[in-house]
Amino acid sequence: MIAITGATGQLGRLVIEQLLQNIPANQLIALVRNPAKASDLQARGLQVRAADYTQPAALEAALQGVEKLLLISSSEVGQRLEQHRNVVAAAKRSGVTLLAYTSILNAQDSQMDLAHEHRETEQLIKASGIPFVLLRNGWYTENYTAGIPTALQFNVLLGSAGDGKISLAARADYAAAAAEVLVRDDQAGKIYELAGDAAYTLADFAAELSRQTGKQIPYNNLPEAEYRGILQNAGLPDWLASLLASSDASAAQGALFDESHQLSRLIGRATTPLADTIRTALAEGATAAAH
Q1: How do the domains of the chain map onto residue ranges?
Q2: Can you tell me the distance from the alpha carbon of 48 to that of 28, in angstroms, rounded to the nearest whole number?
Q3: Which of helix, strand or coil describes residue 149?
Q4: Structural class in CATH, domain 140-168+196-258+272-291
Q5: pLDDT (tens digit, 9 = 90+) per residue, 224-282?
Q6: How many alpha carbons lie under 13 Å from residue 30 in its C-beta half-sphere?
Q7: How far apart are CA 124 and CA 97, in angstroms?
Q8: DSSP per-residue string spanning 206-219
Q9: Mind telling me which CDD domains this protein's record contains (predicted)?
């Protein structure tokens, strides 16, 4: 049995779609905080089990019979390590034979604020004795396409990434990688540095957005503190504004650049071009506006 945590999340659902191409639905377990949100998955034949990262006893029950587990990192930055510790401990007690974890690009030496919890999670996974595979994911293109409506509203793309090159790939590319390691038999001990085939600056992103919309949308690079303040004034929580601004600042120093092409080799195809993901985001935005 293969289990996926965070199965109703954006990445989790994409991983399940990939797995269903090779694995019968009754061999997949969707681990979710709220089973009511997974009724569609249950209708398709998946087992749905309640699994909250903060409830160790429930986690252990949910992992009974699981051979391979994909631990999608918690979205609760600052609380991740303890939550991940609960999952790893439950996996150990339940006899999981392969634990795959979605980490961050170059986790061992990344200076990104996000890297700390990922690095410590990797350490506790290694210390657990469970055979593991680490999926060190780079930046999702969707991290930036989410800001397209604001960029179109104000005719400018803001950030703090300078001329830093970012090896972007679509969320679906990373989902395909996770599914691939879960269906293979030779993955224990492997560590993948996963990133897009092509690298882009935010000026490149703005230029492509301008090309597709017919508008002139320049990239305005700001000091990290100023960008953080703008995000806070826009209503983002302080922690999220700080995270986004510091991530951009790290990208300016090359923290999100990678040219190893491990992702495309793993999934057996090129990663999704920036233009395609922007096109999809614009189409989805137009559809939403029509409704």
Answers
A1: 2-137, 140-168+196-258+272-291
A2: 9
A3: helix
A4: alpha beta
A5: 999 999 999 888 888 888 888 999 999 999 999 999 999 999 999 999 999 999 999 99
A6: 31
A7: 16
A8: HHHHHHHHTS---E
A9: TMR_SDR_a
